[in-house]
Amino acid sequence: MFAYLSQFFRYCGSSSSFAAGHTAVTKFEFQELAVATKNFAPESLLGEGEYGSTFEGCLKSSEQVVAVKQVNKEMIIGVYRSTFLKIHIRSLLHHPNIVDMTGYCIDGNQMYFVHDFMPLGSLTGYLHDKKPLDWNTRMKIAAGAAKGIKYLHDESVIHGNIKPSNILLCEGYHPKLSDILGFKERIPEPDECNQARWQLMIIRQSYRHAPEFYFNLKLTQSFDIYSFGLVLLELISGCMADIKPSLIEWVKCKLVGGEEFTAVADPLLKGHYPEQGLYQTLSLAAECLQIKDVTRPRIGSVVNVLSNLASEIYDPNAIQIDRAGTLTIGKIEKERLTEQWQHIRCFSH
Ligand SMILES: Nc1ncnc2c1ncn2[C@@H]1O[C@H](COP(=O)(O)OP(=O)(O)OP(=O)(O)O)[C@@H](O)[C@H]1O
């Protein structure tokens, strides 16, 4: 992938298109994006995040509906050392479970990333304030998001920012990952300026970071696995990861404290979920949330488990029988789940 880098750095004209691999990324003029978003009007605002604000827009030239994310350039440079590196990495990533980047714009201290517009918005809305998703849709989203992460990891890219607001949904609740920070594996150099920025990120979102990042800023693919484990918990419980004391502690408390594992299921599912599926998802989440990064599963096995779960379509009217032919989860399996969760700890502060 990085063979294209020198080619990219040679690109510096103001014409509108740069070909990277098999696609083109457009370099927009600020004026085009201002027109598209009605001057970044409040009614165009889709949401605000850790790294900037996102606006809905319609490009005059193509009539394409897009999402324009405005980010402070300092933020990009602080993380990547180069705005071009960020654009370049992002422009090469294409997969059915990744939101396509249409283009970018640099204007003074601001950068704008233009992405395909996802009509159903982000997973956050469906988990926490809109109409609840049924079990099958939740599993479809989990499996699709995991496939997006697998693609990134196969390309040696770390997403770095996996959370429900970065899992966007298009028609049919097909999930696509957005806001890919696109890191290579590394431990950021602890120069003063960088250290301060990273620490700011840690403080803002510590509950989503894997323990090794919290302690020594180590960033590997396992970092994504940990964050994804948290998303799995949010999907099945319908709770936010940052509830107090924390979603991890809440789930652990129920499972280790002697309650039935079904106590963590989202009440909005109204009992319409397969016990076996819930059990397996909780077990997978525990594996993803392991304290030691090396003991977390690779994304390939996460995809396998979730693809199986997504393919077992739940019918609320049918009697649920698992693959072993049993109706419910047995005592030994429940003890195994409790044992797994006993070792999970939350590192947020
Ligand atoms: N391509 C898109 N299509 C449709 N809606 C989008 C798109 N990108 C972002 N949004 C909406 O805008 C909201 C804010 O996104 P934004 O990326 O600015 O912040 P965030 O994801 O909450 O946080 P962060 O900056 O840490 O990634 C999202 O929750 C989503 O609802």
TrEMBL record:
Keywords: ATP-binding, Kinase, Membrane, Nucleotide-binding, Serine/threonine-protein kinase, Transferase. It comes from the Eukaryota. The keyword Metal-binding does not apply. Its main location: membrane. Residues 40-309 form the Protein kinase domain. InterPro entries: Kinase-like_dom_sf, Prot_kinase_dom, Protein_kinase_ATP_BS, Ser-Thr/Tyr_kinase_cat_dom. It is found in: Membrane. It holds the Pfam family PK_Tyr_Ser-Thr. The keyword Transferase applies. GO terms for cellular component: membrane. ATP binds at K69. GO terms for molecular function: ATP binding; protein serine/threonine kinase activity. PANTHER family: OS07G0668900 PROTEIN (PTHR47985), SERINE_THREONINE-PROTEIN KINASE CDL1-LIKE (PTHR47985:SF81). This is Protein kinase domain-containing protein. It comes from Papaver somniferum (Opium poppy).
